[in-house]
Specification:
The chain has helices at residues 2-5, 24-31, 48-51, 61-71, 78-95, 106-121, 128-143, 147-151, 164-188, 196-202, 213-244, 246-257, 265-269, 272-284, 316-319, 336-339, 360-377, and strands at residues 8-13, 16-21, 38-39, 103-105, 290-295, 298-301, 304-307, 311-315, 378-382, 390-393, 396-399, 404-410. The chain is an alpha+beta fold. It has one domain (33-287, 349-416): Cytochrome P450 (Cytochrome p450, Orthogonal Bundle), CATH 1.10.630. It has a 5-stranded mixed β-sheet. The chain has a 3-stranded antiparallel β-sheet with strand order 4-12-9. A two-stranded antiparallel sheet has the order 6-7. β1 (8-13) and β2 form a beta hairpin. The chain is globular, with a radius of gyration of 22 Å.
Length: 419
């Protein structure tokens, strides 16, 4: 499309008319818009059957501002430090099943870790039997949902209890039962808890009213859907890139080892080179191809007046491969993120503006803690004969074949493998 039409063009899609920019300047104009300039649109409503109408992703205008203000403290400051031990422990627990010679699919194993992190830190699940029940309910009710009925409303019929939509509804109701039981338990407990659910049930609007159970449920599922697969996918891509770039892998290990045999998880989350590795991976392998804003009334953009209902989009994929911003864009070079800071319209992995990802700091901490734990304890190798392609996985982009790897050997003695 760029070769045919240049850096700005209009295209029809199944979700409406799209105006797509391929430049950081165009992305900056979109992100400069006020929240009142846009409404939620362009495919976001497809997620409503799962995450619900109270989800932060489904809101716009003053209500979005109000909900975001209420939720934001949960993911910043001292609260973040409280989540770090659970992130480390989830990685250690996953390693218990690894042994030299085992073949793994990194995407699957990293998603298992990211799900456990969310269940522990966000949902507040602790009991092993309840963890198992949640894992299975999430797998059936969210991870393995057939995309057809989600994207095509005419398929959202139960047909007497048969078919994919009826099956999805049954599985989602089962997951909801578990979630509402978890919410009820959180409301009953008096002791101080650090999980996100406990903070949500304790949160109050400016007038003193709490969130309803339905609103808490919708935000929990939003954090699950937005944070589970995306983090697991990024972890898999990081393992892929590091094992194709042994010099960068050695630098990461040196940085972790320098913290001593039992590093504090908060120290792991602050490692600069490992953070740059995660950012460079997200630059080369963004989870979403574009970010979108649907015009509410009328919006001046790139010399045009865009009418209401048209969606503006910026291509994260293209902008983050711009050689003027990122020389040798196909080369994995984490140092570029240590040499300068990039604006949200240049590096847009977490979006920007009034809809910047609320869990960005949480995600970066999890990426660094999990990777530091894995890479300092085991040696892996890639089971690939050629570079991996990026493929579509429902709404997100992911590595084909899930990054097959092999466990080569332990790097720490048996007595130090527990957290």
């Amino acid at each position: 499309m760029r070769r045919r039409f240049g850096d700005l063009f209009t295209m029809p899609t199944m979700n409406g008319t799209l105006v797509l920019t391929l430049t950081p300047e165009g992305a900056k104009e979109i992100l400069a818009g006020r929240e009142s300039d846009f409404v939620v649109g362009f495919g976001v409503e497809a997620a409503a059957p799962i995450i619900g109408s109270n989800s932060l992703l489904m809101l716009s205008g003053e209500r979005h501002q109000r909900e975001r203000k209420l939720l934001s403290p949960t993911f910043h400051g001292a609260r973040m430090r409280g989540y770090a031990p659970a992130m480390l422990q989830s990685a250690v627990d996953e390693l218990e099943g690894w042994s030299p010679g085992r073949e793994i699919v990194a995407h699957e194993r990293m998603q298992a870790i990211s799900l456990d992190v969310i269940l522990h830190t966000v949902f507040g699940v602790q009991a092993p039997e309840r963890m198992a029940a949640f894992r299975e309910a999430v797998r059936l009710g969210v991870s393995e949902v057939s995309p057809g009925p989600i994207f095509f409303k005419f398929l959202q019929r139960e047909f007497g209890g048969f078919g994919p939509w009826a099956r999805f509804q049954r599985r989602l109701r089962h997951l909801d039962d578990l979630i509402y039981a978890q919410i009820a338990e959180a409301r009953r407990q008096d002791e101080e808890r650090e999980d996100v659910l406990a903070k949500l049930v304790g949160a109050r609007y400016e007038d003193g009213t709490p969130l309803s159970d339905q609103a808490v449920r919708d935000q929990l599922l939003t954090l699950l859907v937005a944070g589970h697969e995306t983090t697991g996918t990024t972890l898999a891509w990081v393992l892929y890139e590091l094992h194709r770039n042994p010099e960068a892998l050695a630098k990461v290990r040196d940085e972790v080892v320098a913290l001593g045999p039992d590093p504090d998880p908060d120290a792991l989350a602050g490692l600069p080179y490992l953070g740059a590795v995660c950012q460079e991976t997200l630059r080369m392998h963004p989870i979403l191809a574009e970010f979108f804003r649907t015009v509410k009334e009328s919006y001046a953009f790139q010399g045009y007046q865009i009418p209401a209902g048209i969606t503006l989009a910026a291509s994260i994929l293209v902008i983050q491969q711009n050689p003027e911003l990122f020389p040798e864009p196909a080369r994995f070079r984490p140092e570029r993120f240590l040499e300068r800071r990039f604006s949200p319209w240049e590096f847009a992995a977490f979006g920007g503006g009034h809809r910047h990802c609320i869990g960005a700091a949480f995600a970066m901490s999890e990426l660094k803690i999990v990777l530091a734990t894995l890479l300092s304890r085991v040696e892996l190798s890639l089971g690939l004969e050629r570079p991996l392609r990026t493929v579509r996985r429902n709404l997100t982009l992911a590595p084909e074949k899930g990054v097959p790897m092999r466990v080569e050997r332990w790097l720490v003695p048996a007595g130090r493998r527990a957290a």
